[in-house]
Specification:
Layout lengths: L2 H19 L3 H18 L1 H4 L31 H37 L1 H16 L2 H12 L3 H27 L3 H8 L4 H37 L11 H7 L9 H28 L11
Length: 294
């Protein structure tokens, strides 16, 4: 089979999956919302009406108007512009942190499930300990240890999400490793790392991708919570959680300072959750009856 044929088949399969994805109502809504957020984030430098960090004390707490559609905050900064740039950081944190959690979790789960015995016991207990902590509390602890920065927030959220990926990968590995093709590869003397990467990973990757899509919304919420508590990306960098936090003291005087970033977080999380549900239904239909992942 030529490379051109393989590429054509992959392209056709991608089109088919995309078509199935947007067939359902939640797929259409989720895909539309996420696509809109991505476009707004990418084009933020072009479409933002003002500099997101430029202060103007003359324009402090201005109500929504034509010049400032979402109003301004206590420093006179345009909230719409800050939200557009905030989408960029939310998407970056979501994608990178989920990728970190996937790599760490899948590696741990596969090693434990493949080797079994004491290795599996150690990995299992480690996963149990990590899952024993509330998600936000675990992320807070990691940020407190590493320090406050964009990279540390992504690492903290990624590590906090990794136990769920590890538990999923471990369970699927325990099932797949008994399949004849894995046994045959081991009997041929292939190294364990190659067996795991070439034979196990392709057969457990679908539910992992589904979980990754479902965890994007969770990652955005946690990153916003960290910024809201002052432990995320530091000012004056515009983040959705930081913008929301700025309005806490002005809820009665200027409620728009908190309302609009709160709505932005809600819409983003809702969009990713709907898209994740649709991807789950397309890639792993058997999960539709089981209530999804925990």
């Amino acid at each position: 089979m030529s490379l051109t044929t393989v590429t054509t088949e992959q392209t056709e399969r991608a089109r088919t999956l995309l078509g199935q994805l947007v067939e359902t109502r939640k797929g259409k809504i989720g895909f539309g919302v996420v696509a809109a957020i991505v476009v707004l984030a990418v084009l933020a430098p072009v479409i933002a009406p003002h500099d997101p960090i430029e202060q103007s004390l003359v324009d402090r707490l201005v109500a929504p108007s034509l010049e400032h559609p979402f109003g301004t905050d206590a420093y006179g900064r345009d909230i719409l512009s800050r939200i557009l740039y905030g989408f960029r950081y939310s998407l970056l944190i979501g994608v990178v942190s989920v990728a970190i959690g996937t790599v760490i979790g899948v590696a741990l789960g596969m090693v434990g499930g493949y080797y079994g015995g004491r290795v599996d016991t150690v990995v299992g207990r480690l996963i149990d300990v990590m899952l024993a902590f509330p998600f936000l509390l675990f992320a807070l602890f990691i940020v407190a240890v590493l320090g406050q920065s964009l990279m540390n927030v992504m690492i903290a959220v990624g590590i906090a999400t990794s136990p769920r990926f590890a538990r999923l990968a471990r369970g699927d590995t325990l099932s797949v490793k008994e399949e004849p093709f894995v046994t045959a590869a081991k009997s041929m003397g292939r190294p364990n790392t190659k067996v795991m990467v070439e034979h196990l990973l392709p057969n457990i990757i679908t539910p992992v991708l589904v979980m990754g899509s479902l965890n994007m919304g969770r990652a955005i919420i946690i990153s916003a919570a960290l910024s809201f508590l002052g432990l995320g990306v530091q000012p004056p960098t515009p983040t959705l959680g930081g913008i929301l936090s700025d309005g806490r003291a002005f809820m009665e005087l200027a409620p728009w300072v908190s309302i609009f970033p709160g709505l932005a977080i809600t819409v983003a999380v809702l969009g990713f959750n709907l898209l994740g549900d649709a991807i789950r239904d397309v890639l792993d239909p058997k999960l539709q009856q089981g209530g999804g992942f925990t």
